[in-house]
Amino acid sequence: MTLPRQRGLTEQAADAAIDTACRLLRLPSIRNEFNEIADRAIKDQMTYRGFLAELLMTECDDRARRRSERRIKAAGFPREKSLRSFDFDANPNIDAATIHTLASCEWIKKSQPLCLIGDSGTGKSHMLIALGTEAAMKGYRVRYTLATKLVNELVEAADEKQLNKTIARYGRVDLLCIDELGYMELDRRGAELLFQVLTEREEKNSVAIASNESFGGWTKTFTDPRLCAAIVDRLTFNGTIIETGTDSYRLASTRARAEHAEAG
User: In principle, which of 38, 127, 177, 213 could form an S-S bond with 144, CB 3.0–4.6 Å?
Assistant: First the structure.
């Protein structure tokens, strides 16, 4: 389709031509915001170059936002969690400076692992999801899963002769977040399949895990001591280990809200 080009377009004709061009070129943000930006350009006496830059940056920013939203959705997080919403004062075991350094995602760039270890309610899953979200926003491919769900998927894939394909899929993402590792005992087959995923990713892509068991207690999850030691090695080599403590962050927050309500 060729758009008619002529001098002296009326305002109405110009708007129609812009709308049509934006549709053809797939520039939805410019199409939606053109009038507002044009009015602002007149008010601020922008140059033609400044006006064009404003239009193009609007489209670029919106595309980046949409890509970020798609990556976050593809990660499969069970709920929204952010670093901003975490109360570091409520759990002094988690150092805010360390977490914000991790949010830069340099460790993912270096394919290093991250382990969050602590009791239930201490903020492990919150940190795992929040850091995974930060990674997705910075352009990394992220996947979140529960440990038992991952193992069950691997077992089903092995039974259906799709194991290599499934392991390769989990191997490709830049960051694999495994939550609730250590909550349930895994049989030898499940543990070996999980080990295959970790081996596929070793020193190539990052793994972040959250566990309610210290490494010494992992023999209850991985009953083969040698396999357990190999898995711990995969998850800690050149990695960061954060101990979130034993005092429930959620319970403390609930109590604080209840006390505040009573005082009110």
Answer: 177
